[in-house]
Every structure is written in C-alpha cells, then in structure tokens.
Amino acid sequence: MNSITATSLSISIFGAIATWMALSFMSGFVLIWAIFIAWAAFAALGGDNTAFKSTVICGLFGVSVGWIGAYMFLALPFSETIGVALWAAIVVAVTAFAVVFASNFSFLAAVPASVLSYAATFAYLLQTEGKMSITTLTASSFENPLLIISLSVVLGAIFGKLSTVSAAKITCEQQG
After folding, report:
1. Which pTM was predicted?
2. Which of 37, 59, 99, 171 is deepest in the core (most CB within 10 A)?
3. What is the domain extent for residue 143?
C-alpha cells in the first residue's frame, strides 16, 4: 500500500475513533474540532516525535496565552473607555506578540501550534454562547478553556502520532 493510501486509511480510522470519543463518553471534556486543529498542527510540524512534543508544549502555551488575553479583555475596564473593538485589538496585539516572541525560547519555537491553540481558545470562547465570561475563565470545570481546549490539544497530538505510526506500519507491512 502506498503511503498516501495508508495515511488516508489511518487518519480515517483514528478520526472516527476521536469523533466517537468526543461525542460520547468524552463529550463536555473535549471538542472534536480542537482535536483536529492540534492534529493538523502535529502534521504541519513534521509528524514525528519532535512534532508531538512541540504540539503539546506549544499548544498548551497557546491556550494559556489565549486565556490570559481573554481574562485581560474582560477584567480590565478599558473597553468602557476606548471601545470594545480598540481594546480587543490591543489585547490581540499584546498577546499575539507574546506568542511569537516566545519562540525565542527553543521549547516554544513551534509558532503554528501556539497560534492554532491560541485561536482555538478564542473560537471556543467567542463562538460558544455564554462562554466569554470571567465565570467560564475561572471555573474549575471543563467549561474553562484551560481544561477543555488543553485536553483536546493533547488528544489531537496523540491521535496525530497514532495515525502516523499506524500509517508507517501499514506501508512497511505491505512493502515487506
């Protein structure tokens, strides 16, 4: 079996498993779209052991910076003074700078994983009704993006690694 077919088969199987998990017993603890975002980051970073480590570390960093940005936006009263749009733009400027500037540290060098997880954090907060709140950000439950997006990122990296290893094994078995 050629590598593209093996990869397609592996991703379809593990994608189905991830979807089933996210929509059944892990519902409320992970988000399937965030799993696939991290999975894509893993693939974009090379799909190897270094990519796995970078996806997890930088992914969790991106979630954390996104959380800090959301907290800044909500907790500091500047939107009342300068307007919501300008305050949001300033928060994004500061936190986006932090995400990229942190890549000066080698363990945070995988900017795509950091940015994708940062974006996933805001997607969850802004696109899920009622989630962009201090209550959500400080919850000790999986409503908090630090928990639900972070667990999704870790599972995305795991599924990425499983699919890559499986595809390589299928390809080798067929060639051997």
Report:
1. 0.94
2. 59
3. 33-162
